[in-house]
Amino acid sequence: ETGVTQSPTHLIKTRGQQVTLRCSSQSGHNTVSWYQQALGQGPQFIFQYYREEENGRGNFPPRFSGLQFPNYSSELNVNALELDDSALYLCASSSRRGQISSGNTIYFGEGSWLTVV
Amino acid sequence: GQQLNQSPQSMFIQEGEDVSMNCTSSSIFNTWLWYKQDPGEGPVLLIALYKAGELTSNGRLTAQFGITRKDSFLNISASIPSDVGIYFCAGPYYGGSQGNLIFGKGTKLSVKP
Question: pLDDT means per 10 residues in chain B (113 residues)?
């Protein structure tokens, strides 16, 4: 148990629809990152949120957007869903922004499986 | 850009055997992380390495941070069926200032009882 919880665990959407995925970070963690993991691949960084602002973004189009709330929980929104968006979406939290160290480790939730048909 | 190459892609071993896998990069990393992912779950951190040459153990697992800073190794001794899963190496994006990770494609381990 990492203390990072995600919902929903599984969902099916139709191409062109919009989806919202939710994440509660581990207690005391103020930084949340989102990753996309396609089948057979390693996770790929989408973006990170710190103090309710986007703080770094990977190579994903603008239809991938997010929010972070004052309690540090976060949402990932994907608009105009495409078939290739089918993947496991992982949320990760850490205690602070900045260099990874023994005092700033990244922990992952169990993910939300999205299938686009 | 930064990339992590893991080998082997998959391994089929007998219970009790030792396992060795590695991760290489053309870029220097200042941190190496090893995660294990079970089917349908998120990655779980096994070992974190923060210094070149560092050798760290976690039970039957041992990982090393290569002195060139461009590679890392994970060894599992006396494998058991619950070791089955996908093992990922990961490291921070260039500079690590954002605290975000890039991952290898994973090594899939199968253990035959």
Answer: 89 96 92 92 92 94 95 97 96 65 95 91
